[in-house]
Amino acid sequence: MELNFKSTQKLNKNFMYNNLTRSNCFAVDFGGSNFDFTSLRGAHFKSCNFFGCSFKSAEFVGTNCKKSKFKNAKFEGTLFEGVNLNGADFRGATFKNVIFVGTDLNVANNLDLNAEGITIYEAMPELEMSSELEEALKLAMENQYVKASRVLDTKDGGIHTVNVMRLLEIFDEKALIRGFKIMTPRLDKDFCTLSYIIKTLTTYKEAGLL
């Protein structure tokens, strides 16, 4: 769904699991809303208020958050990639396993770059992986729903190494290879964040398939 609001209030709303790609909002008050497992890829949320909002496993990719306020917001397992944070305010925000990639953090306000729970990459990092894992990743990206989600590849068509690293924190390489091979012909549902792949692979693991 696309959100297109201007100078209005959308307090305590539930946007959980929504694909907010290419949404365009200006000066909207989202205070207390839930953005868990939500994709904000390519969206514009300028001068918005996200006071006390939750962003667990949310993904900001190429998002414009200029002058938005994230005061007391909760970020856990959140990805910021190529995000415009010019003038964004993070006063009182909490971070757990949050990753920033290719994002200028010096233009943000009240963001402690040395805070525990934050990992920063100036650019997409290199990752050594076996040829078997690379082949399994490329196979998975042949699935139309994986391809549409863009969670395993970068805008230039390369492998999204940060998300692979996130997966390797949960599953060992052999489990990932086996999981991708099982998932590729089975996955038949639209999704928008890496959390869906994690959930799918966890289901396979619990079923003893990995």
TrEMBL record:
Q: What is the lineage of its organism?
A: Bacteria, Bacillati, Bacillota, Clostridia, Lachnospirales
Identify the InterPro entries for this entry: 5peptide_repeat, Pentapeptide-BTB/POZ_domain
**Source species, domain of life:** Bacteria
Protein name per the record: Pentapeptide repeat-containing protein
Kindly give the Gene3D superfamilies that the UniProt entry links to this protein: E3 ubiquitin-protein ligase SopA
